[in-house]
Amino acid sequence: QVRLAESGGGSVQVGDSLRLSCAASGRPGSVFSMGWFRQAPGKEREFVAGLSWVGTSDTYYADSVKGRFTISRDNANSKNSMRLQMNSLQRDDTAVYYCAATPGPKWAMNPNYWGQGTQVTVSS
Fold first, then answer.
1. Any idea what DSSP says for residue 54?
2. Of 98, 54, 102, 46, nearest to 76 (Cα)?
3. Residues in a beta bridge with 101
4. How far apart are CA 27 and CA 83, in angstroms?
5. What gap in Å lies between CA 24 and CA 59, rounded to an integer?
6. Cα torsion at 121, 109, 65, 105 (round to 10°)?
7. What integer pLDDT is reported at residue 55 of this predicted model?
8. Which pLDDT tens digits describe the chain residue by residue (124 residues)?
9. C-alpha–C-alpha distance, residues 111 and 99, integer Å
10. Regarding beta strands 81-86 and 18-25, do their DSSP bridges make them parallel or antiparallel, or are they unpaired?
């Protein structure tokens, strides 16, 4: 069974930065393309960022976070762990952030696996 372990949420102020991390485990030898979704109170879950396993330049972002958020592998040899660097945080970024993963080299918008979620709160 695949497990996604998230970390790094918290409470910050507008303009601050925060980094989320996620590691996938449970299927030795498998590789995952990974990403993040978020869900704010009263809203539907939405895509934030995605990263394909093959090619570090193969990243995807929601328009609302482009230029502020960066998704990347933890290091060049890290197949199943990644991070989301969030800069210039705004109040609208407040949400529960979910790590997501799909088996294989290409990120997909309908991931197979989900983390439990980590809360990010941005206040002014």
1. S
2. 54
3. 34, 113
4. 20
5. 18
6. 110
7. 58
8. 899 999 999 999 999 999 999 999 888 778 889 999 999 999 999 999 999 876 556 899 999 999 999 999 877 666 788 999 999 999 999 999 999 999 888 898 999 999 999 999 999 9
9. 10
10. antiparallel
Q: Which amino acid is at 49?
A: A
Give φ, ψ of 52 to 5 degrees: -85, 150
State the Cα–Cα distance between residues 31 and 13, nearest whole angstrom.
Answer: 35
State both tokens at 67. Answer: 């230029």
* 32's tokens: 């995952």
Structure tokens at 25: 């485990």
Q: Which residues pair with 33 in a beta bridge?
A: 102
Residue 99 is predicted with a pLDDT of 97
State the amino acid at position 36 in one-letter form. W
What CA–CA distance (Å, rounded) separates 67 from 23?
24
